[in-house]
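On clarity, I found the account of how folds are encoded harder to follow than it need be. Since the whole study asks how a given chain folds, the encoding of that fold should be made plain. For the editor and my fellow referees, an illustration may be useful. An entry of this sort, consisting of the sequence and the corresponding backbone structure tokens, reads as follows:

:::
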Amino acid sequence: MPREKKLDEKFCGDCGEVIKLKAEICPHCGCRQLPAPAQASVFTSAINSVVVAPAGGKSRTTAAVLALFLGGLGMHKFYLDKPGQGIAYLILCWTFIPALLAFIEALRYFSMSDDEFQGRLAVGKLDHLGKVDVPALGPTPDTHVKCPDCRALIPRDAKVCQYCRCTLVPQ
């Protein structure tokens, strides 16, 4: 008889054992677990949904304020993990060109939405003005398949369905 899971538990995607919801690694089989749906809304019913996750926890407002007040010295570039550009701003700060560029960047950061900022930061194209294609972070046909029994999306390499606990045949 299969064990029922509690609200703070889930089934391991690999071995099917009941584990804690926040567990990153299954204590039974050692398999790394995907984030729970409550932690990151990556697992929706659509297989190709795009979810932008915060990249490194960088704040759009902090980047904009740094660009506005200390941008001539490149401090916003260092904050955004672009030390090469930050050093270039420092070297050229006496020309006031970095200050002008930083002012324009501050205006752009202030005018962006948080989602757009995080998407551009995730793909490394904050300085790019065109449309940014954000890669899908959720289930894709390369990483997930539908369970033949309950039709739920499960990791491609799972041996047991985490929802209906049926044994899966490797593909």
